[in-house]
């Protein structure tokens, strides 16, 4: 349970948060037309006659969009409605050529489900109220002309899943964890790419405040927030604003607000509309959607192993820590990269899982962060990473030298075997050479030898380090340790 509270002049206040996430459905065409949905196209270059609402044009549901919504619902363990219906949501704006949006209000395709999140040290279940399909609107552009606004209809008709949470979140941290987990699931399923910076996933943020345990307060809705950081900032600002209003004797107006990321604050946009304001009614051009058992079975069988199940398997089968397993399964692309790495080692995953996970999280992620790259653009392939791990495991190079080899791999893209061969980095287990180096170190440090034999056991590490230095880092550490123990007595 979250302990997040706002300290006001009249005592503590609790924040109540619900999110409506709009996720663009992965599909090559729009919800009711065959127009393309590629990001970044020239304005009004992906608009069919249906999207532009030309007279006599009838919508035809996109089977793939329906399939992806159902698969998403199944991944959230939600109720799937075999019978659903599209409604018309009536409002008038320049970027909505029909004068209405085709959505689902009364009979959505997906009902209640859940998402389990980790916020801090605690695990919490967040309820999903519903998922419904709807069309996106177009886009108004106000900076193209000094006295006119332009309209781009490329997004008009793009399929969206609106994923509505229950008001179960109690802190900005929980809301951030919820969005990250939802995005992870969508990417695993393949139903949305989750690219918030491109607008394919955004959230309407509902916030109210109350005295702990009291009835829910009046909520505001902050529209179209497009990053996890901004979602958390909007909640923080809006909750504190509401507390200030209430403690000064005012009341909260149910309204729609916008978040200004430059100022880090929300501002009023318009009074909040209710469902009856939109005059919903069943769309007369569309029959109800009826899903048969074969379709539902195919949807369920197509689902991949999801992040929670994969994390649990990594812990039980590979012996990974909860932290490592969570990091490696948080993103579908990372999990695929890691599993390709494991397979490329040619050894049982249980035997190499820990070493591989430590290398990915520490060495690889550290390097990618430094280079400003994600795992999809890694200069080192999973196969190369597997070979590097193998060279350490079979004693060809030491762990210390492997870091030098890895840096060269990052710079050149070369395979680790070639780097080791070219630069003469193979680890030696030649006891004669190692003994000679040890004798030299002992001769040069007689005072420390005496201290060690007098009980200062921690000096053993000094002798190991000096011997490795004398061997240019190429000595087998196991052999060094064994010979030093004999020599030092």
Automatic annotation (TrEMBL):
Boundaries of every Asn/Gln amidotransferase domain copy: 336-488
Known catalytic reactions: L-glutamyl-tRNA(Gln) + L-glutamine + ATP + H2O = L-glutaminyl-tRNA(Gln) + L-glutamate + ADP + phosphate + H(+); L-aspartyl-tRNA(Asn) + L-glutamine + ATP + H2O = L-asparaginyl-tRNA(Asn) + L-glutamate + ADP + phosphate + 2 H(+)
Enzyme Commission code: 6.3.5.-
Top-level class of the enzyme under EC nomenclature: ligase
PROSITE patterns (UniProt xref): GATB
GO BP term, example: translation
PANTHER family, alphabetized: GLUTAMYL-TRNA GLN AMIDOTRANSFERASE SUBUNIT B MITOCHONDRIAL AND PROKARYOTIC PET112-RELATED, GLUTAMYL-TRNA(GLN) AMIDOTRANSFERASE SUBUNIT B, MITOCHONDRIAL
Family: Belongs to the GatB/GatE family. GatB subfamily.
NCBIfam families, per database record: gatB, PRK05477.1-2, PRK05477.1-4, PRK05477.1-5
Assembly with partners or alone: Heterotrimer of A, B and C subunits.
UniProt name for this protein: Aspartyl/glutamyl-tRNA(Asn/Gln) amidotransferase subunit B
Lineage: Bacteria, Pseudomonadati, Pseudomonadota, Alphaproteobacteria, Sphingomonadales
């Amino acid at each position: 349970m979250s302990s997040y509270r706002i300290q006001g002049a009249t005592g503590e206040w609790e924040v109540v948060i619900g999110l409506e996430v709009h996720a663009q459905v992965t599909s090559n065409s729009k919800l009711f037309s065959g127009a393309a949905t590629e990001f970044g196209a020239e304005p009004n270059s992906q608009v069919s006659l249906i999207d532009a609402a030309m007279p006599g044009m009838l919508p035809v549901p996109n089977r793939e969009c329906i399939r992806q919504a159902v698969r998403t619902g199944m991944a959230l363990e939600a109720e799937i409605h075999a019978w659903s219906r599209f409604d018309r949501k009536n409002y008038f704006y320049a970027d909505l050529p029909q004068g209405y949006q085709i959505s689902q209000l009364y009979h959505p395709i997906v009902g209640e489900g859940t998402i389990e999140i980790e916020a801090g040290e605690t695990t919490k279940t967040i309820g999903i109220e519903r998922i419904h399909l709807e069309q996106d609107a177009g886009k108004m552009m106000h900076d193209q002309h000094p006295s006119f606004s332009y309209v781009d209809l490329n997004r008009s008709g793009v399929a969206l899943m609106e994923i509505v949470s229950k008001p179960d979140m109690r802190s900005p941290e929980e809301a951030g964890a919820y969005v990250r987990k939802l995005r992870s699931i969508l990417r695993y399923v393949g139903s949305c790419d989750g690219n918030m910076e491109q607008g394919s996933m955004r959230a309407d943020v509902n916030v109210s405040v109350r005295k702990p345990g009291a009835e829910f307060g009046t909520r505001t809705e902050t529209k179209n927030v497009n990053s996890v950081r901004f979602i958390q900032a909007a909640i923080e600002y809006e909750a504190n604003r509401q507390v200030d209003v209430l403690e000064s004797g005012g009341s909260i107006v149910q309204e729609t607000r916008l978040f200004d990321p430059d100022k880090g604050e929300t501002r009023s946009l318009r009074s909040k509309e209710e469902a009856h304001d939109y005059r919903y009614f069943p769309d007369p051009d569309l029959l109800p959607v009826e899903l048969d058992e074969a379709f539902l079975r195919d949807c369920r069988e197509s689902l991949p192993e999801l992040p929670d199940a994969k994390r649990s398997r990594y812990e039980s089968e590979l012996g990974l820590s909860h932290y490592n397993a969570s990091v490696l399964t948080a993103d579908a692309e990372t999990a695929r990269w890691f599993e390709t790495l494991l397979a490329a080692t040619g050894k049982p995953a249980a035997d190499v899982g820990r070493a591989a996970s430590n290398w990915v999280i520490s060495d690889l992620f550290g390097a990618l962060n430094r280079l400003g790259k994600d795992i999809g653009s890694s200069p080192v392939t999973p196969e190369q990473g597997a070979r590097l791990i193998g060279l350490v495991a079979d004693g060809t190079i030491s762990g210390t030298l492997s870091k030098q080899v890895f840096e060269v791999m990052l710079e050149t893209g070369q395979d680790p075997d070639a780097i080791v061969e070219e630069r003469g980095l193979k680890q030696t287990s030649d006891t004669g050479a190692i003994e000679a180096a040890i004798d030299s170190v002992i001769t040069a440090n007689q005072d420390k030898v005496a201290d060690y034999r007098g009980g200062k056991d921690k000096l053993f590490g000094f002798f190991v380090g000096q011997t490795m230095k004398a061997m240019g880092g190429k000595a087998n550490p196991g052999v060094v340790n064994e010979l030093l123990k004999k020599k030092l007595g």
